[in-house]
UniProtKB/TrEMBL annotation:
<dbReference type="InterPro" id="IPR019533">
    <property type="entry name" value="Peptidase_S26"/>
</dbReference>
<dbReference type="Pfam" id="PF00717">
    <property type="entry name" value="Peptidase_S24"/>
</dbReference>
<keyword id="KW-1133">Transmembrane helix</keyword>
<dbReference type="InterPro" id="IPR036286">
    <property type="entry name" value="LexA/Signal_pep-like_sf"/>
</dbReference>
<dbReference type="InterPro" id="IPR019756">
    <property type="entry name" value="Pept_S26A_signal_pept_1_Ser-AS"/>
</dbReference>
<keyword id="KW-0378">Hydrolase</keyword>
<dbReference type="InterPro" id="IPR015927">
    <property type="entry name" value="Peptidase_S24_S26A/B/C"/>
</dbReference>
<dbReference type="GO" id="GO:0004252">
    <property type="term" value="F:serine-type endopeptidase activity"/>
</dbReference>
<dbReference type="GO" id="GO:0006465">
    <property type="term" value="P:signal peptide processing"/>
</dbReference>
<dbReference type="InterPro" id="IPR001733">
    <property type="entry name" value="Peptidase_S26B"/>
</dbReference>
<keyword id="KW-0256">Endoplasmic reticulum</keyword>
<protein>
    <recommendedName>
        <fullName>Signal peptidase complex catalytic subunit SEC11</fullName>
        <ecNumber>3.4.21.89</ecNumber>
    </recommendedName>
</protein>
<feature type="domain" description="Peptidase S24/S26A/S26B/S26C">
    <location>
        <begin position="37"/>
        <end position="124"/>
    </location>
</feature>
<comment type="function">
    <text>Catalytic component of the signal peptidase complex (SPC) which catalyzes the cleavage of N-terminal signal sequences from nascent proteins as they are translocated into the lumen of the endoplasmic reticulum. Specifically cleaves N-terminal signal peptides that contain a hydrophobic alpha-helix (h-region) shorter than 18-20 amino acids.</text>
</comment>
<keyword id="KW-0812">Transmembrane</keyword>
<keyword id="KW-0645">Protease</keyword>
<dbReference type="GO" id="GO:0009003">
    <property type="term" value="F:signal peptidase activity"/>
</dbReference>
Length: 177
């Protein structure tokens, strides 16, 4: 397979068409993602479980579907995805305690199902409870192990670049019949 020979044989119109086709695929994926953000109310409507802290409920590589509707109260027992100041990656854990103040504000404590202690050690220094603003979303469904592709691509960057190169070459060289 001579990739560059195929590109040279393509006329300019075909090449423009293939590049435009590739751009449409990328923009369609982006529009779907942004649409999911609007529909679910979550800044990240789909996340991958990266550790075994939630086993047996969720395993490493499970793909979670999230919602984050502001008027829906958080309850003990729910699985939430939250961000902690100073950490780049959101955490998926279960709410174990709710602390409701007299003014109606709710704070809560989380813990991984497979962990011995609560998450206070994961929160920023001096923080003992999470608030609604910390929540990225709440788990509403999942697909087991589908996210392993993401984990493999993060663990092995060369694999990620090879996969992207193959997909890009396929889109550019695919001939319409």
């Amino acid at each position: 397979m001579d990739l560059f020979g195929d590109l040279r044989r393509m006329n300019k119109r075909q090449l423009y068409y293939q590049v435009l086709n590739f751009a449409m695929i990328v923009s369609s994926a982006l529009m779907i993602w942004k649409g999911l953000i609007v529909v679910t109310g979550s800044e990240s409507p789909i996340v991958v479980v990266l550790s075994g802290s939630m086993e047996p409920a969720f395993h490493r590589g499970d793909l979670l579907f999230l919602t984050n509707f502001q008027d829906d109260p958080i309850r003990a027992g729910e699985i939430v995805v939250f961000k902690v100041e100073g950490r780049d990656i959101p955490i998926v854990h279960r709410v174990i305690k709710i602390h409701e103040k007299e003014n109606g504000n709710i704070k809560f404590l989380t813990k991984g199902d497979n962990n011995e202690v609560d998450d206070r050690g994961l929160y920023k220094k001096g923080q003992n409870w999470l608030e609604k603003k910390d929540v990225v979303g709440r788990a509403r469904g999942f697909l087991p192990y589908v996210g392993m592709v993401t984990i493999i691509m993060n663990d092995y960057p060369k694999f990620k670049y090879a996969l992207l190169a193959v997909m890009g070459a396929y889109v550019l060289l695919k001939r319409e019949s």
